[in-house]
Amino acid sequence: MHTSSYMVQTLIKLLEGKSLSHVSTAKNSNQYFANIKKQGIELVEISKKNTSNKGSHLERSLAQNIDNIQRAKGYLNQLQYKQDKIA
């Protein structure tokens, strides 16, 4: 799967209102969240305690304001367009 495919799947899940702590099967989940934030898309990050040890992780969700959702949809469309050109 291409990097943009992981990003597309991540954005779709965030736009569906899901909270994510990682990107399944991705080597470095944090890079995807960082790239999303570089696009001006605001993520709500909440620190959660791990159930298996004393550590913690960040759960991220999309900030639910109209401008932010539109930015996320625009970035998703951009990525999907690039994917279509590659395929």
Structure description:
This protein is α+β, with helices and mostly antiparallel strands and 87 residues long. The protein has one domain (3-86). The protein contains 3 helices and 2 strands; from the N terminus they run H-H-E-E-H. It has helices spanning 3-15, 29-38, 66-86; strands spanning 43-49, 56-62. A two-stranded antiparallel sheet has the order 1-2. A hairpin with a 6-residue loop joins strand 1 (43-49) and strand 2 (56-62). Helix 1 (3-15) packs antiparallel against helix 3. It is globular.
Write the topology of this structure.
Blueprint: H1 3-15, H2 29-38, E1 43-49, E2 56-62, H3 66-86
Helix pairs in contact: 1-3
Name its key features.
alpha+beta; 87 residues; 16% strand; two-stranded antiparallel sheet
Shape: globular
Percent of sequence in beta strands: 15-25%
Report the C-alpha radius of gyration, rounded. 13 Å
Total helices: the number is: 3
Strand order of the largest sheet: 1-2
The low-confidence parts are none
Q: Roughly what percent helix? A: 40-55%
Gap from first CA to last CA:
12 Å
Number of strands: 2
Order of SSEs: HHEEH
User: What number is the mean pLDDT?
Assistant: 87
